[in-house]
Amino acid sequence: MKEQVTQGTRPLLSAEQLRLTFPGRRGAPPARAVDGVDLDIAPGEIVALVGESGCGKTSLARTLLGLEKPTAGAVTFAGKPLDYASRALKAYRKRVQLVLQDPSGSLNPRHTVYDAVAEGLRIHGYAGDERAAVSDALSRAGLRPPERFFLRYPHELSGGQRQRVVIAGALVLEPELIVADEPVASLDASVRGEILALLLRLRDELGLSALVVTHDLGLAWNIADRVAVMYLGRIVETGPVEDVLTAPQHPYTQALLSVLPEAPGDPVVLTGEPPDPSRVPGGCRFHVRCQVLARGSAEEAGVAEACRSEDLPVLSGGAATQVACHWAAARAAQ
Q1: pLDDT tens digits, 105-121
Q2: Last-in-domain residue among 202, 231, 260
Q3: How far apart are CA 179 and CA 65, in angstroms?
Q4: What is the CATH number of the domain that holds 218?
Q5: Which of the residues 47, 143, 250, 328 could staple to 237 if both were Cys, CB 3.0 to 4.6 A apart?
Q6: Which pLDDT value is given to residue 28?
Q7: What is the pTM of this model?
Q8: Of 177, 179, 181, 183, which Cα lies nearest the Cα of 208?
Q9: CA atoms within 13 A on the CB side of 146
């Protein structure tokens, strides 16, 4: 049973009006990778950030990690604005750790498991018992007895074991939050459940918070307390995972859910690819692909023109269920 995070708790990590743009290619306008995002993550909360490839999820995650400096807006951690001075960032990255999707690419093939896990301790000048810290991290990550793995190399491990080593490398610094970018995408189905169960157990045992970046709504259902659905640089629907995934309000969320095997009805096939982030459409940024607008339902609700011309406000980063959609707002008002 997922622990419910108490509403009103001060966020551990918070983004406010966050924007990240990149220079356009060959004279094109700047690409708006993150285009106005408010997002809070509470202590002990797991938030799933979901959406198609190219929607801005990884850019948002990198900005929250301090790997990219926002063009506008602010990131706050434990009540303090993120300081981009090198020493301050080093201290921050000890408290907020990244877990990547490809454990093979995350691990140096020439380093033993022990060295891979100890690397963070050495970077941060750890003065305690290194061997004990590495042993504890490997044990927490489910590699027991840990000494049996010390001298192994990545190629001697299974995919699931390699991912556990990556997780141990994050845990060894005793972070307060981890950002997991597609943490099980490269793993066999039989191993995915084990890694998800591990992340939940770490939250329960250590009070660890997590932002899980994924395109897989099934994964979000199994691990998250709250879900934020991202499209073209902005969060378009957010709320407790049970609310959003059992009663999605935004047409984009409905389309993403419709392709799951257990979803009722026919899958919604979205036309085309997400627009170029250097040319974000006016009005609702989803309207050029929206199945609700295409079938005339927005016209019936009297919001078709608003969909094409009126931008929607940035959703607040809190725990309440919210949606950025003219049609959904019209339905709620009826």
Answers
A1: 789 999 999 999 999 99
A2: 231
A3: 8
A4: 3.40.50.300
A5: 250
A6: 82
A7: 0.93
A8: 177
A9: 21
Please report the pLDDT score of residue 3 as a whole number: 42
205's tokens: 């045992």
Q: Choose one of 199, 231, 263: the last residue of a domain.
A: 231
Same domain, yes or no, for 58 and 118? yes
Identify the CA nearest to 160 among candidates 136, 194, 110, 137. Answer: 194
| Domain membership flag for residue 140 | yes
Structural domains in the chain (count): 2
Q: Is the peptide bond before 145 cis (omega within 30 degrees of 0)?
A: yes
Residue 177 located in a structural domain: yes
Same domain? For 294 and 201 the reply is no
Boundaries of domain holding 201: 13-231
Residues 24 and 156 in one domain: yes
Strand duo 72-77 + 13-22: pairing: antiparallel
Could you tell me if residue 320 is inside a domain?
yes
Distance CA 169, CA 4 (A): 27
Within a domain: residue 237? no
By DSSP bridging, strand 209-214 and strand 226-231 are: unpaired
